[in-house]
């Protein structure tokens, strides 16, 4: 199981409106490849990136790394029963970049 605890509290600093920075943990200058993650790894990733409350939706729906890479925008916005604001951030700043990185890495 991956440990994303190296993402420090300061990188998830609370903003005035109550939101947190949505930066992805980076490994060796690249986003991690979730293709071999289990459900717990996906949950830990979203907890480490400031979406602790929403991470339980991935647990409830048993989303592992392979499932995460197959998710569409609509899946995240409607299939996980997450409020729209956090769901948009999760997709745009995490799911989509992880998918893009995975495709670039495995295209060769």
From TrEMBL:
Residues 1-10 have a biased composition (Polar residues). Residues 1-35 are annotated as: Disordered. Gene3D superfamilies: Transcription Factor, Ets-1 (1.10.150.50). It comes from Fundulus heteroclitus (Killifish). Residues 37-85 form the SAM domain. The lineage of its organism: Eukaryota, Metazoa, Chordata, Craniata, Vertebrata. This is Sterile alpha motif domain containing 13. GO terms for cellular component: nucleus. GO terms for biological process: negative regulation of DNA-templated transcription. GO terms for molecular function: chromatin binding; histone binding.
